[in-house]
Amino acid sequence: MATLQKSASFSLMGSLAASCLVLIALSVQGGAAVPIRSYCSLDEYDFQQPYITNYTFMLAKEASLADNNTDVCLIGKKLFHGVDMSEHCYLMKEVLNFTLEEVLLPQSDRFQPYMQEVVGFLTRLSNKLSQCHIESDGQHVHRNVQELKDTVKELGEGGEIKVIGELNLLFMNLRKSCL
């Protein structure tokens, strides 16, 4: 019985010591936990399903046929301007969330049969990236995403069509930035 009590006592002391170490580490960092970069990543497997790749590209092609504005590119070099390479996945996560919430879900009745499958796929990617955060204030990221949102709003329904027409670029940049 005494041996069992000593064992439990040592186990409790070990847990307390580990907790103290965590608290000390947090206090050294000013009380803030450091985000783990691995949350800002996706698996290669997410992009290896040929049918979803085809659906995404077919949806983008169908929408781009309805896009009359060929002068504007939403997902291009300008989107990444001033953004540190280590923050590209976070940037694409923000673009993905905007695309889902503000464009695809309200337009979900259009461009069938591809839309439903692509929305489901992109929602799964968004869920996987939900814990993705960056260590900096993300000023460049937020400014660039806001510029994209403003451009889409300025273009009206044509802007939403353009976003859908660039789903292939979203797909490729998510893959490039988050693997």
Task: Describe this structure in a few short sentences.
Helix 4 (88-104) packs across helix 5 (114-128), helix 4 crosses helix 7 (157-165) and helix 4 (88-104) runs antiparallel to helix 8. With 179 residues, the chain is mainly alpha-helical. The protein has helices spanning 2-28, 50-65, 77-80, 88-104, 114-128, 139-155, 157-165, 167-178.
Which descriptors would you attach to this protein?
0% strand; single chain; globular
Overview of this protein structure:
There is one protein chain. By secondary structure, the chain is mainly alpha-helical. It contains eight helices and no strands. It has helices at 2-28, 50-65, 77-80, 88-104, 114-128, 139-155, 157-165, 167-178. α4 (88-104) runs antiparallel to α8. The termini are far apart. 28% of the residues are buried. The model is unreliable at 4-37 (pLDDT under 50).
Write the layout of secondary structure elements.
Layout: H1 2-28, H2 50-65, H3 77-80, H4 88-104, H5 114-128, H6 139-155, H7 157-165, H8 167-178
Helix content: 55-70%
Pairing-aware structural class of the strands and helices? Answer: mainly alpha
Number of helices: 8
Strand content: under 5%
Radius of gyration: 22 Å
- Rounded mean pLDDT is 84
> Main beta sheet, described?
none
Distance between the termini: 54 Å
- Compute the number of strand runs: 0
Order of H and E elements: HHHHHHHH
So what's the overall shape? globular
Low-confidence runs: 4-37
